[in-house]
UniProtKB/TrEMBL annotation:
Protein name: Sister chromatid cohesion protein PDS5 A
Glycosyltransferase recorded as keyword: no
Gene Ontology biological-process entries: cell division; DNA repair; mitotic sister chromatid cohesion
Cell division in keyword set: yes
Subcellular location: Nucleus
Gene3D superfamilies, sorted: Leucine-rich Repeat Variant
Amino acid sequence: QMVVKTFMDMDQDSEDEKQQYLPLALHLASEFFLRNPNKDVRLLVACCLADIFRIYAPEAPYTSHDKLKDIFLFITRQLKGLEDTKSPQFNRYFYLLENLAWVKSYNICFELEDCNEIFIQLFRTLFSVINNSHNQKVQMHMLDLMSSIIMEGDGVTQELLDSILINLIPAHKNLNKQAFDLAKVLLKRTVQTIEPCIANFFNQVLVLGKSSVSDLSEHVFDLIQELFAIDPHLLLSVMPQLEFKLKSNDGEERLAVVRLLAKLFGSKDSDLATQNRPLWQCFLGRFNDIHVPVRLESVKFASHCLMNHPDLAKDLTDYLKVRSHDPEEAIRHDVIVTIITAGKRDLSLVNEQLLGFVRERTLDKRWRVRKEAMMGLAQLYKKYCLHAEAGKDAAEKVSWIKDKLLHIYYQNSIDDKLLVEKIFAQYLVPHNLETEERMKCLYYLYASLDPNAVKALNEMWKCQNMLRSHVRELLDLHKQPTSEANSAAMFGKLMTIASKYPGKAQDFVKKFNQVLGDDEKLRSQLELLISPTCSCKQADVCVREIARKLANPKQPTNPFLEMVKFLLERIAPVHIDSEAISALVKLMNKSIEGTADDEEEGVSPDTAIRAGLELLKVLSFTHPTSFHSAETYESLLQCLRMEDDKVAEAAIQIFRNTGHKIETDLPQIRSTLIPILHQKAKRGTPHQAKQAVHCIHAIFSNKEVQLAQIFE
């Protein structure tokens, strides 16, 4: 300890003392001290030797190369003590590190033939001891020590480079985050010196195929990714090698390079595509690769690229267009996923062309692709039109989606029709909205649809109503005594219902019918569900109750239950009940009075009124009982008095379809309605007159008297 203090206090100018203590300096490097079994003695000797190199610099007192090698390997071994910051001796270990870094003592080793062995040992030691209990000073001295060896030497050998790069490999990175950070900063600091060595390593492995040059050869792509993230300049000469690899004859090799470059081009802060256009163009060429996994990987990359680099969308569009017609189903599917994922993040990331590719795929020959395209468009519509998450321009950009999706109802495939119904109930007019909000959504949707989409929607309601009638008739058959005729009728009805569903629907429908026959409570729940007076809220409870009864906890995926739920959702009044019709009529009244949000919703009041009445007319066929309230009829009377012939005709038609109980239940409405119908029959247009007569005939018991009064 006394010797340590003596050397610690001595400086380079003390010539007399340097001479006086030279024998002691030489003596301390003897085997007795370098191999001493006592740990503390070895630490103190190492501190003395570090100070001796400082005092006698630039000439060390040790002339034998073997002795110098022994001394530096000895000092390196002592640096392992830095690991334990809680050790009482830690300050001495820190002093040793600080001294070595400050004096650059290890640079003496450049004269030695096998200096590389010392440096490798030093680097490995420092990377192994660094941990999260060390402060910044420890890291700084380690960096100074290692960077001086890299920058002042004649080049970095492969083994020394490996001792740095191994800390970047994912397995090691996760094991010691501090070693990764140390390697990262070291590479940043020495980028110009170390870059040629890195280039040589990758050239040996990637171009010449000499994997034996390093134990890290199998991790080259992981290393390139990490080095690029640290500083792209570390790979200046490596990128052309990757271009060479992209053209490899081996499909798996091309796939590995595509995966790597996808990460490099796609990462958020990367400007590689603009900095290295030849490599970018070569990479884009892989979208047309003969190897399916390579094309698939390229398409998956496009999503990240669109989100992180919108400026590259133009480059990607042409390649995605070709891939959207790829013979492989999985690739066409992933093109849709790519575009929709980016669109959901931000609609401005996908141009009209890209959305057009998704639109085309709604007619793909494969169901999986069609389904992905339809669902993707539905999600975009809900986000940007329904919730207006990005303003009016974004809503306008995807306003065509509603029409396109409904047009698909004209397709022959049952799968397509069922998906359109599902999309309508979940995305176009979400059934879980409150009644007023739901009807406002339906009112303005109907007013803004093109004629073909309106026809498709009307057809959809008609089909659902028909299915409801079939189920009602099936339940009626269950009430009748068992007979051969009854069984035959029931079988026919089951086949009709099954024909409205894809796959193994027949088996499932038969099974459901069997359950209905055995469970009276289930039948009464289904009766309630298809009852004309069932409200949307009651329907929701019924569907959940029936599904709960049929669920099997031991069978998480139950195709039978899924089919039954689908049947129930189609026949349940998820959108329309008395409350909903009342809300619709109120909306129309507001349009008539000029107090509605028509212009804000993008339709004129006239269009809204006409479309609203057409909508009510269609619903009067499918849900007549829901119209039966004084409030609804009062509003319809107001429409009857309007000068617009089409509006009046639609109102008469609604009365004709729904008014069969007006005479008995709503005398006040009856007394107002009769004079108006008389007037329309006498002085209205020929079509109105005809409609008025039909209306009287349909809803009044003393029709002969009423008609006689008209014909007078």
